Amino acid sequence: MLRVEEISFHYDGVHALHGVSLDVGEGELVALLGANGAGKTTLMRVISGLSRPEGGRVSFEGSDITGAAPHRIARMGLVHVPEGRKLFPQMSVADHLFLGAMPERTAHRRGEVADEVYARFPRLSERRRQLAGTLSGGEQQLLAIGRALMAEPRMLLLDEPTLGLAPALAGEILEVVASLRDDGISVLLVSQEVVGALEIADRAYVLENGVVVRSGSAAELAADEEMRRAYLGL
């Protein structure tokens, strides 16, 4: 479904990505792991069109989307949930969801799609008139994911959805991510929650200093001794 081939990118004079390649199949949940500064967020921005690569190619469902405008990529069904949620504090839950309804895709039936999101996330339904800035961290992350689901994506790019959350809440969010995959939405998940991400992912890639240094099934990486020492503290 998604294919990233030999992507290179400089950021503020730093070579952030060095020939990065990965792929995500239909219905797969693939984790992209690595420490801060490894290039994970930069790669997500390149895929979603927010940053233009200096080399390489990105294709989605067979179409070349390298350097395409972000709104065009989103309308194709590839939707980015950015790190930090990027909500509007003075906007209500309901208005955030309506904002996510894509023209020519779901805007004409946004009420129906919003009801589906509320059914998936009852906490959002209870708070639909509440301002986003007054929600808890976990609720804000659910809202960011719900806003993306309003576009009825075929694939989601989830950048650090557990960032800043207590362990119990982080676990809940990862369960939500797994449920999205189980419902047929392909997912590329960026996470520093290595243990939790490997528990739900089908496959994973490890990025270090802008280079893919490991890849394989989630089970293989979880059992890898060097991975266990470097990322799991075991």
Give the low-pLDDT segments.
Answer: none
> Largest sheet, if any?
6 strands, mixed
Q: Fraction of residues in helices?
A: 25-40%
Terminal-residue CA separation: 34 Å
Named CATH topology of the largest domain: Rossmann fold
CATH architecture level-2 label of the largest domain: 3-Layer(aba) Sandwich
Evaluate the radius of gyration.
Answer: 17 Å
Q: Could you state the CATH homologous superfamily of the largest domain?
A: P-loop containing nucleotide triphosphate hydrolases
- Tally of DSSP β-strands: 10
Count of DSSP H/I helices? 10
Which structural category do the helix and sheet elements fall into? alpha/beta
SSE topology sketch:
Blueprint: E1 2-11, E2 14-24, E3 29-33, H1 40-47, E4 55-60, E5 63-64, H2 70-75, E6 78-81, H3 93-100, H4 110-120, H5 122-126, H6 137-149, E7 155-159, H7 167-182, E8 186-191, H8 194-200, E9 203-208, E10 211-217, H9 218-223, H10 225-230
Parallel strand pairs: 3-8, 3-9, 6-7, 7-8
Antiparallel strand pairs: 1-2, 1-4, 4-5, 9-10
Helix pairs in contact: 3-6
